[in-house]
């Protein structure tokens, strides 16, 4: 029997290591993160620009909302500089990473040693919005924000795709159960 999550959105007891097939009676931040880690997601670097320069962050909270018109959605922690920068400039690019770009994911997540989050040494170019496009990305979407939605501790940016492209054919970089994975053909 699959695990079942139920309960109120706050309060109650916390169960940190449920056995498979058990019910968690409390929906809290840690339980939500644990179960969310079981959803395989592609890895992206979302880029934008601001008064001080270029900015990027690693993100897997990305989805296609509509093909006609072309709309995408990203979800970012509301208290980050990334959310502030995207909110101010009104644009971003979503760069889909290949399994050979794990180092870029780590770099823009702030976990790579001795490198900064800026674009020093990262080959990139610009399209319509002015947000940086990573040259070797598996694919990319260049976007203008159409709607900003405040949802709990995150900000959702619904955006219209104004340009897009494909990079070299590679396998996608995937994040599952707190580890990088590769999709084999």
Essential attributes:
disordered N terminus; 43% strand; 7-stranded antiparallel beta sheet; 185 residues; mainly beta; Pnp Oxidase, Chain A; 3-stranded antiparallel beta sheet; globular; 14 strands
Summary?
The chain is mainly beta and 185 residues long. The protein has a single domain, classed as Electron Transport, Fmn-binding Protein, Chain A (Pnp Oxidase, Chain A).
Commentary on this structure:
The protein has helices spanning 29-36, 81-89, 102-108; strands at 4-5, 23-24, 41-42, 44-50, 53-59, 62-67, 70-77, 91-96, 124-126, 132-134, 139-151, 154-166, 173-176, 179-182. By secondary structure, the chain is mostly beta strands. The longest helix is centred in the middle third of the chain and has 9 residues, at 81-89. The strands form four sheets. The protein has a seven-stranded antiparallel beta sheet. Strands 3-13-14 form a three-stranded antiparallel beta sheet, with no helix packed on it. Strands 1-2 form a two-stranded parallel ribbon. The chain is built from three helices and 14 strands. The chain has a single domain (42-176), classed as Roll (Pnp Oxidase, Chain A), CATH 2.30.110.10. A hairpin with a 2-residue loop joins strand 4 and strand 5. The chain is globular.
SSE order and pairing:
Elements: E1 4-5, E2 23-24, H1 29-36, E3 41-42, E4 44-50, E5 53-59, E6 62-67, E7 70-77, H2 81-89, E8 91-96, H3 102-108, E9 124-126, E10 132-134, E11 139-151, E12 154-166, E13 173-176, E14 179-182
């Amino acid at each position: 029997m699959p695990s079942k999550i139920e309960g109120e959105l706050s309060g109650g007891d916390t169960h940190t290591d449920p056995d498979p097939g058990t019910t968690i009676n409390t929906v809290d931040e840690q339980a939500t993160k644990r179960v969310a880690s079981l959803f395989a997601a592609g890895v992206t670097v979302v880029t934008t620009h601001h008064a001080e320069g270029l900015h990027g962050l690693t993100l897997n909270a990305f989805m296609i909302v509509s093909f006609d018109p072309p709309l995408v959605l990203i979800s970012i922690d509301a208290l980050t500089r990334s959310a502030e920068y995207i909110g101010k400039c009104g644009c971003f690019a979503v760069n889909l990473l290949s399994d050979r770009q794990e180092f870029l994911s780590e770099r823009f997540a702030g976990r790579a040693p001795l490198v900064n989050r800026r674009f020093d040494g990262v080959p990139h170019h610009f399209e319509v919005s002015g947000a940086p496009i990573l040259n070797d990305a598996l694919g990319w979407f260049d976007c203008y924000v159409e709607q900003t939605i405040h949802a709990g501790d995150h900000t959702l940016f619904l955006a219209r795709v104004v340009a897009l492209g494909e990079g070299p054919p590679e396998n996608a970089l995937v994040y599952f159960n707190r580890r990088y994975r590769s999709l084999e053909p």
